[in-house]
């Protein structure tokens, strides 16, 4: 099989455009928003705060894969409508997760970038389906995936013709239990050195602890990440899901200011 993720010596680095945002260019890209899409007014208020803070793209889940079937599963198609309205209101691109091949065709009408979540990194039918679209894809690393498995998942998408893939390191499961996951910044360094795809880091899922999200955000940029994906909310403790790892919009603003002024240490 042809290796699409060739060494940098053999090709130019891929830059992925999401509307007017370029991931993999000179500027670091900041993606932020709540774990789950909530009601329209809350989402618009969050979006306006984040835009003022310097965030480039919004995030939020309409379809939520949860460990327990009794937990909140997202607003689903109603959530997609809210995403579209919020994106238009504040003029910011929106990325959200799609979990089912049956939802891809409809979802591309509403979103600017499709996220393949950690649990679906091995869903090869879904990877092939989004590979047939012209939408940029954010591919999160599987929670127990090796680097090679993750890269081959990207190749599943690219082999269908869609090379607009951004990798997202979101932590992996290890024997350590203090944090939600172990944020593997080694993977960022390897991808930046060897492969053409842009890579961003999600320190929210990578740590599960809002108090260390700022430090790990800075560490991710220091090791070469092209950007960050951070869960934030105007009232983090009241976030519908993943409140423990969600930071405030003001904290997000401080992370961006620190990175933009190169105060990494």
Label this structure with key terms:
265 residues; alpha/beta; 9-stranded parallel sheet; two-stranded antiparallel ribbon; 11 strands; 16% strand; globular
Write the layout of secondary structure elements.
Layout: E1 16-18, E2 21-23, E3 29-33, H1 40-53, E4 57-59, H2 77-90, E5 94-97, H3 101-107, E6 113-116, H4 124-131, E7 137-140, H5 147-158, E8 165-169, H6 185-194, E9 199-201, H7 203-207, H8 213-222, E10 227-233, E11 247-248, H9 249-260
Parallel strand pairs: 3-4, 3-10, 4-5, 5-6, 6-7, 7-8, 8-9, 10-11
Antiparallel strand pairs: 1-2
Give an account of the 3D structure.
This protein has 265 residues and is an alpha/beta fold. Helices cover 35% and strands 16% of the residues. The protein has helices at residues 40-53, 77-90, 101-107, 124-131, 147-158, 185-194, 203-207, 213-222, 249-260, and strands spanning 16-18, 21-23, 29-33, 57-59, 94-97, 113-116, 137-140, 165-169, 199-201, 227-233, 247-248. A 9-stranded parallel beta sheet has the order 9-8-7-6-5-4-3-10-11. The protein has a two-stranded antiparallel sheet with strand order 1-2. The longest helix is centred in the first third of the chain and has 14 residues, at 40-53. The chain is globular and about 40 Å long. The chain starts with 15 loop residues before the first strand and ends in a 5-residue tail after the last helix. The model has no long low-confidence stretch (mean pLDDT 92).
